[in-house]
Amino acid sequence: MSEKHLNLLTPSIGLGCMNLSHAYGSPVAEEEAIKALQEAFEMGYRHFDTATLYGGGKNELLVGKALKHLRKEFFLASKCGMAMVNGKKEINGRPENIRQQCEDSLKRLKTEYINLYYLHRKDPNVAIEESVGALNDLVKEGKIGAIGLSEVSADTLRSAHKEAPITALQSEYSLWTRNPEIATLEATKELGVTFVAFSPLARGYLTGAVKSAESLETGDIRLNMPRFNDDHYPKNLLLLNNFIEMAKEMGCTPAQLALAWVLHQGDHVVAIPGTRFANHMNDNLGSSDIKLSADQLSDLNDMINQNTISGARYNAAQQKEIDTEEF
């Protein structure tokens, strides 16, 4: 297998790098972030996921600085089509923008190629075939190894896949966000597309560490998400009691149990939990060794699902950015 086509499925746990620079409060200091990324590689991570958007490009810079000397030994994923422009988030899937963002990403990441390059969000003003066509040109030129899509519907995936082969679809998926079960989980399996679950720990909820919204730092993206507000989060916390007890009985952490559930949803499913802390990274890796019985899976499905969770996944503005199916 060539360097540009390293195996996305092995290991089944990758590292979402966003937390180091973006969305969850203050960015981690550069030296500390670089150390964390290098420790992640040393403990066994071989799939690192970043994006143009994260930290306005700073996250890609971190990954490049931390891992450039190991470039041939890991699977690198990044994303285009959503970026900070003049201080505001902009979704732009036009071919010329995709090409420019790729060139910029390659420089920041200090690499000649990106194994997997996602369209971060579908641009409602640009046909998906047009955006994917631009990505396919980058494949032909050797600048990216494969094409991915993020937070799109099964219909969009099928349309895109007719234009050029789609290697991966990335969407939020966890016990408390089941939207992929409507259509995309099955569509990816049918088309031979890897399903990459982001936020598989429900943005920290399933670890049991987030006791209230008041504990979150100013600027944390979760403060704008309905499930974490005062109307809904206390109700959601109550659902964790049996979940945490089950983890104790199994001799694993809540995070490991949550990740094991995700990995049991299909052989084509991988997860990319994000964290700032090396001990959590190591803990998350251990989830791939956990085997769940049919009864345990059934119990977990009954405990936490789209019907038991209180509150919407996104607020109205965030919801407009995605193309995924809704219950």
Automatic annotation (TrEMBL):
Specify the species. Marinomonas gallaica
An example of a GO molecular function for this protein is: oxidoreductase activity
Write the lineage as a comma-separated list.
Bacteria, Pseudomonadati, Pseudomonadota, Gammaproteobacteria, Oceanospirillales
Q: In the UniProt record, what gene is named as encoding this protein? A: yhdN
Q: Which Pfam families does its entry note?
A: Aldo_ket_red
Q: What class of enzyme is it?
A: oxidoreductase
GO cellular component terms, alphabetically, are: cytoplasm
Which keywords belong to this entry? Oxidoreductase
Q: Which residues form the NADP-dependent oxidoreductase domain?
A: 13-302
The identity of this protein, by name, is General stress protein 69
Top-rank taxon: Bacteria
PROSITE patterns the UniProt entry points to: PROKAR_LIPOPROTEIN
E.C. numbers: 1.1.1.-
